[in-house]
Amino acid sequence: MHNALVLIAEDEPEIARILDSYFTAGGFRTVTAADGETALMHHAMLRPDLVLLDVQMPRRDGFAVLVELRRRGNTPVIMATARAEDLDKLSALEIGADDYVVKPFNPKEVVARARAVLRRTSGAMGEPGVLRVGPLEIDTASYLVSVTGEEPPRRLDLTLTEYRLAEHLARAPRRVFTRGELVDACMPGSDALERTVDSHVSNLRRKLEQAGASGLIRVVRGIGYRLMGE
After folding, report:
1. I need a surface site. Which of 140, 151, 178, 225 has the fewest CB within 10 A?
2. What predicted TM-score, i.e. pTM, was given to this entire model?
3. 10-residue block means of pLDDT along the chain (230 residues)?
4. Which DSSP category does 52 fall into?
5. How many structural domains compose the chain?
6. Residues 63, 57: Cα–Cα separation, whole Å
7. Which of 107, 125, 143 is the last residue in one of the domains?
């Protein structure tokens, strides 16, 4: 949990500054976003460990951002809003929020809730910062990808795009990702065409096969790709 990256999606600069200060003092790394689109871009590029997400934001509100985050994977999310209605709370939890705080809130409590959510979710996923799918091991803090099962594990020499593809697929194993989704998540801000994904995935599959992990990435004809753990 130490040094975990928190994405603070908050359009009120003073609140964002206060939250940033408290999280930093608590040993977290932080990045801020003042609107929903920027929050999604940061999430795709930086892979935060937790998202603190305000409901009322420009360029996609918090609920729309949460829907997209859940489509991408299981990043822990705490919703924050000025509205205390039960319907808002229920909507956030049903969509997939891990916790919910109502403004005005005590920033110390928000940091404490973030720690509790990270403890709960990291306990469910295994060692924090490490993704494991079958023989594939991804250290998200060091950007290292290895194939285990042999001594020593075989480390893959990946490009940044290949690493992003491996990590994105590993965060939701067995789920099928379309080529468009992989472009948006792994090549944000680029003008890459969907067929460009095929080239990067082909290189990634070849490197996995050379390391003794063939068949991990499966082609789903007419749709895209998924990562299998078996």
Report:
1. 151
2. 0.56
3. 83 93 91 93 89 91 89 87 65 80 89 87 56 87 84 88 90 82 75 81 94 90 82
4. E
5. 2
6. 10
7. 125
